[in-house]
Prior knowledge:
Keywords: Acyltransferase, Transferase. Residues 16-260 form the Thiolase N-terminal domain. One of its GO terms (molecular function) is acyltransferase activity, transferring groups other than amino-acyl groups. The chain is built from twelve helices and twelve strands. It has helices spanning 40-53, 81-88, 106-119, 147-150, 160-170, 175-194, 225-230, 261-267, 292-303, 320-330, 343-346, 350-368; strands at 16-23, 27-28, 66-69, 97-100, 125-133, 205-206, 212-213, 250-260, 273-282, 312-315, 372-379, 383-391. A hairpin with a 5-residue loop joins strand 6 and strand 7. The chain is globular. The two termini are 31 Å apart.
Amino acid sequence: MSENRTTTVSISDRDVFIVDCVRTPVGRGYSNGSLNSMKPIDLLATTLDQLMKRNTKVDRSLVEDVICGVVTPVREQGANIPRFAALKAKFPQCVPGVQLNRMCGSGEQAVHFGSQAIKSGDMDIVIACGVEMMGVVQMGSDWQLDETFKDGFDFKILHQGVSSEMIAEKYNISREEIDRFSGRSHELADKAQKNGYFKSQIIPVTLPDGKVIDKDEGIRTPVDYKKMATLKTPFKANGKISAANASQISDGSSAVLLVSGRKVKELGLVPRARIVATAVVGSDPELMLTGPIPATKKVLAKCGLSLSEIDIFEINEAFASVALAWQKELNIDISKVNPNGGAIALGHPLGATGCILMTKLVNELERSNKRYSLQTMCIGFGNATATILESCSFKPNPKL
Length: 400
């Protein structure tokens, strides 16, 4: 895939570059979802295989680790699934794999760990990836809220939905604002899908019965705002959070090929984006989902960029109130936020979402000829991740 691209950035040996990134279509995470007949290991193996088939200059034996986000690592998603998936994708036996769980930020954390290994000089080529099939392995089935998680804390253990209601109240966000943001997500995703913006990033998935899935399943248009306003609010009586303004339960996989600047030059690769900075923070475990606010501030401070210099923002739409609180607190231009829709429309296959968002960002930076992007994700019980990317193909407008 790199043969037809050019780069406009300087390449330093220990810089970390995204050479390529792919994702599967995102299916509804239920028994009737478009991907449900697949096994998680096969979905991930397909993703890894197709990533490498797009990048023939990188021999599979050169990959030094496959780091995979998996939020519910049990049964079909347990037993170090990236190792098995890599072997099934015909990677040589010398290529290791490891899975991690930073809850909703797992895919983005996989990118961070891979980037840190490359920056330190320990590795040169890493695949960061994620997989989650919520229609096969139910969310939360790896733990239970018993006395282990109830006693000995100075805070309450709450459902994320309750926290999202608390955030809406704290930031004085109305139900109408929340529903409008949610409808916007569907409308933007629908526009992107119809205009073919996702085509180059999605790898078609062939099901066991031979059917090919090549489009995201969760997008719903035209948006019926009147019906949306009537939906029940399960986390609070007469509340603001409904099924229509929260992320969808989904199936999906994604993978990002990370390469050091040294290896980029040695192999004659053309990178797509440079990882400028990464950050992870802890935040209030009760309010829980406000972590993207300090994470955004931290990652900007680490690289000396300002909010005004960021061209595109991608914040995971776990709940609309979370994205709106972050946007209001930091006074971010809403037109720069999730320009092709987010998890409310496209879905949130937990462990995969971090890499899916990054794949969307890399492609949107190129499509719109923008330079910098910032990705951030809220995480259960008070964590958040953030990453800043620089496009390697950005060309300034000489008229500006």
